[in-house]
Amino acid sequence: MSARKIRSEVENSEVDMTPMLDIVFILLIFFIVTTSFVKEEGIMVNRPKINKPQSQSAPAMVLRISDSGMVTFNGKPVDIERVPARIENFIAKNDSSSAIVIPNYNTRHEDVVAVIDKVREFEHLTISIGK
């Protein structure tokens, strides 16, 4: 064959893209079907307002959580189940509307959430998370 004839055949030849498009669409459908969409759950944290003046006479409740999960309420150790009773007692003696939860850096998230859930039983309390 001559070079001119080969060149004209190469220029006139076309590649059928239909099978490649079929494969691309099949892969696309496969990845869409096998992908799982997970909605991440989180906790709502109400941050204190900057403009809101806080009275200096009302003491705050400080709940510290150690890395082992031990909870202290204003410096005294307390069982996590007794936290609501301590809060009720503190509110009865003091006019307080804020609670500060201070977890240790290595505290498990489950322990922090459990303490916050106990404090959230009192809807009028403002919860702050400290370092």
Describe this structure in words.
This protein is an alpha/beta fold. Helix content is 38%, strand content 16%. The chain has 4 helices and 5 strands. It has a 5-stranded mixed β-sheet with strand order 3-2-1-4-5, covered by helices on one side. The chain starts with a helix and ends with a strand. The mean pLDDT is 82.
Write a short abstract of this structure.
This protein is of the alpha/beta class and 131 residues long.
What is the topological layout?
Layout: H1 3-12, H2 18-34, E1 61-65, E2 71-73, E3 76-78, H3 83-93, E4 98-103, H4 109-120, E5 126-129
Helix content: 25-40%
Number of strands: 5
Q: What summary fits the major beta sheet?
A: 5 strands, mixed
The secondary-structure element order is HHEEEHEHE
Unreliable stretches covering 5 or more consecutive residues:
none
N-end to C-end Cα span: 83 Å
Oligomer: single chain
Total DSSP helices: 4
Question: Mind telling me the C-alpha Rg?
Answer: 32 Å
- Name the average pLDDT: 82
Assign an overall shape. Answer: rod-shaped
Structural class category? alpha/beta
Task: Give the amount of beta strand, in percent.
Answer: 15-25%
Strand order of the largest sheet: 3-2-1-4-5
Key structural traits:
16% strand; 131 residues; alpha/beta
